[in-house]
């Protein structure tokens, strides 16, 4: 008998997350939701590459504190040099190199009569779908990005056949179902240059999107109704299950100095500045951002991350922190983002527009200054600006943002008529987001639908 068979005999969901906290956190949170149903046992399958030594304890602590019906199994070590690879390439290559080990593990599970009802993995782990198909295990993808981004992924093979040029060299708008006309420079950064290895890996995953039985998406009907409808009507598309927003609260530590600093600020007076866990700004851009913030004369809380080996404090203009003491606070490294966004003193959010951060801002009803850095963040920026909940930062030809533009955008989101309109729009979206995951909401019902399918899957395996 396989050692995991000592778990209570419930239908088992096998979950394989992907590289990066932006992908891991939503997987952990949806794992907690599934565990809370008390209908399944969960097995998280990891490798030495898809979760770092820091990330594995994070996932284990958050999940095991939520349920005893969760186990972690690590595949044998694979050898790869991540520092030489772009994230999309890394994720794709790790999955490809792990397929043999995964097939062996899943074969052991089946030989032990482990009741498996679903295999859920990341949108960049599609190499695993051939393994599960071979073994007859129902497979599903969990997309931690938007439905709009997923629409683009489904349509990329069509665009690839229509155009020979790289998107970075094109001026002709692209027509993408569910998105309308799209500036080619706003496509995900991974696919701007079709001569790059990243493009090939991205395209490979896009070509595999019709292989799973279903796709769970971290979004909700009221936010992306058109994009979701396009996905559901796509010929040959798997079943779509919008189950978001999936927000992480468990990693938050309320006892932090930045929250105590916020306690001393007036209501809705502070703009929060953070570019997420992966994106970093150049030294020159950090200096421009600092000068623009100071010139805006607004209170600010800035989470400053520098590239590896750099001293964040040394990147700021001389005397910046002392001149802004009391009015501004620079946090070097990390801050509890959801706690900051939900604080009564927080009025707006300068964000890189990662989808997790976008949903967190929406959940807390905080309008954004949209400043994309990489990946599909330009698409998210466009969406939030068109929705009326964000102010667009205008970039120069090289992608830099001038200090005067920082000042303008910050003032616009913090003061005047546009500020009030954006705040009202975000409050409307906040209400819709919370209704979606409440009992009877669209996302709540969508999760129940896929759960019913998984229970039926167990009966036929």
From TrEMBL:
Source species of the chain: Araucaria cunninghamii
EC numbers, comma separated: 2.4.1.-
Entry annotated with the keyword Glycosyltransferase: yes
GO molecular function per UniProt: UDP-glucosyltransferase activity
UniProt family annotation: Belongs to the UDP-glycosyltransferase family.
PANTHER family, per database record: GLYCOSYLTRANSFERASE
Pfam families: UDPGT (PF00201)
Keywords associated with the record: Glycosyltransferase, Transferase
Cited InterPro entries: UDP-glycosyltransf_plant, UDP_glucos_trans, UDP_glycos_trans_CS
Protein name: Glycosyltransferase
Lineage: Eukaryota, Viridiplantae, Streptophyta, Embryophyta, Tracheophyta
Gene3D superfamilies reported in the protein's UniProt record: Glycogen Phosphorylase B
UniProt enzyme class: transferase
């Amino acid at each position: 008998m396989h050692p995991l068979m000592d778990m209570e005999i419930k239908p088992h969901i096998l979950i394989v997350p992907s590289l990066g906290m932006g992908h891991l956190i939503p997987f952990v949170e949806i794992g907690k939701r599934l565990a809370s149903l008390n209908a399944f046992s969960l097995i998280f399958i990891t490798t030495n590459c898809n979760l770092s030594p820091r990330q594995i304890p994070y996932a284990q602590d958050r999940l095991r504190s939520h349920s005893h019906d969760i186990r972690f199994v690590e595949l044998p070590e694979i050898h790869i040099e991540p520092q030489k690879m772009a994230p999309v390439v890394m994720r794709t290559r790790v999955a490809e190199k792990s397929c043999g080990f995964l097939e062996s593990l899943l074969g052991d599970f089946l030989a032990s009569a482990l009741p498996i009802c679903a295999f859920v993995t990341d949108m960049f782990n599609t190499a695993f779908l051939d393994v599960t198909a071979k073994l007859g295990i129902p497979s599903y993808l969990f997309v931690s990005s938007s439905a709009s981004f997923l629409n683009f992924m489904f349509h990329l093979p069509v665009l690839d056949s229509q155009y020979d040029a790289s998107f970075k060299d094109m001026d002709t708008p692209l027509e993408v179902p569910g998105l309308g006309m799209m500036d080619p420079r706003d496509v995900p950064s991974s696919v701007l240059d079709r001569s790059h290895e990243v493009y090939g890996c991205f395209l490979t995953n896009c070509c595999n999107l019709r292989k799973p039985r279903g796709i769970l998406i971290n979004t909700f009907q009221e936010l992306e109704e058109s994009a979701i409808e396009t996905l559901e009507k796509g010929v040959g598309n798997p079943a779509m299950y919008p189950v978001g927003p999936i927000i992480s609260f468990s990693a938050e530590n309320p006892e932090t100095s930045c929250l105590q600093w916020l306690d001393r600020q007036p209501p809705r007076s502070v703009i929060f500045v953070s570019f997420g866990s992966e994106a970093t700004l150049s030294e020159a851009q950090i200096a421009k951002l600092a000068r623009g913030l100071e010139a805006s004369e607004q209170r600010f809380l800035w989470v400053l991350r520098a590239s590896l080996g750099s001293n964040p404090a040394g990147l700021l203009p001389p005397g910046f922190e002392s001149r802004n003491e009391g009015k501004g606070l620079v946090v070097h490294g990390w801050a509890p983002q959801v706690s900051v966004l939900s604080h009564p003193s927080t009025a707006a959010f300068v964000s890189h527009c990662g989808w997790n951060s976008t949903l967190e801002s929406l959940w807390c009803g905080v309008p954004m200054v949209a400043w994309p850095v990489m990946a599909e963040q330009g698409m998210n920026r466009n969406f939030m600006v068109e929705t009326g909940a964000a102010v667009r930062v205008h970039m120069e030809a090289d992608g830099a943002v001038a200090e005067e533009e920082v000042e303008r955008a910050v003032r616009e989101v913090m003061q005047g008529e546009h500020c009030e309109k954006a705040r009202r729009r975000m409050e409307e979206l906040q209400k819709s987001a919370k209704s979606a995951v409440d009992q009877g909401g669209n996302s709540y019902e969508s999760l129940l639908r896929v759960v019913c399918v998984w229970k039926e899957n167990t009966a036929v395996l």
